[in-house]
Amino acid sequence: MQVIDLSHPMTPEMPVFPGDPSPEIRIVASLENEGYVERLLTLSSHTGTHVDAPAHISPHGKTLDALPPEAFCGQGEVVDCRPLGSKPISLGFLKQSGCMSRPVDFILLYTGWDAFWGGEKYFSGFPVLTPEAAEWLIQAPIKGVGVDALSMDPIDSENLPVHNILLGQSVLIIENLANLGKLPARDFFFSCLPLPIEQGDGSPVRAAAIIGL
């Protein structure tokens, strides 16, 4: 069995969505003074590698604490979107790639944008699903769609069409994934378990893939 970490490390300097607060990580107890180490974390619910609950967009969508643990794990499939560059991820491209040719719980879009983590390029130019492609994905009984980029919609989008399509049908969104290039296209177990935040609209996760389970 092999476990692949799919999360970015959390640091005060990490990229955040424009307008969101940067995380603060402060030592409040030390071995020298208190005999133990403890840190105070101040961060947005959508910091770093994180999951969007339906309540992030929909007024009637479920919050994190209303979803069972099994909603955040299952069989995964990687779609290699790198050949597109910055072009949209269309329905035709998904079908040509063989996406969902057999039952799967999570579709992970491998754009390669995690290579730009920490730089200016990370904030723009990443490919996103077309609304038509998103509508096609929700026809299957999937649990979530993930991407190794900043957002499932363009950074300057005002109406967030892909977020609304997916979350409107209770399909989770996982953003800022990493290391998708280390995964096979299929036959792995994916997990993105969040903190059980009361009325939570989202949460950082330690996403991981298990191969050979």
TrEMBL record:
GO terms for molecular function: arylformamidase activity; metal ion binding. Its EC number is 3.5.1.9. Pathway: Amino-acid degradation; L-tryptophan degradation via kynurenine pathway; L-kynurenine from L-tryptophan: step 2/2. It comes from the Bacteria. Keywords: Hydrolase, Metal-binding, Tryptophan catabolism, Zinc. Its cofactor is Zn(2+). It catalyses: N-formyl-L-kynurenine + H2O = L-kynurenine + formate + H(+). It is an enzyme of class 3 (hydrolase). GO terms for biological process: L-tryptophan catabolic process to kynurenine. The keyword Hydrolase applies. InterPro entries: KFase/CYL, KFase_sf. Pfam families: Cyclase (PF04199). Homodimer. Catalyzes the hydrolysis of N-formyl-L-kynurenine to L-kynurenine, the second step in the kynurenine pathway of tryptophan degradation. This is Kynurenine formamidase. It comes from Desulfatibacillum aliphaticivorans.
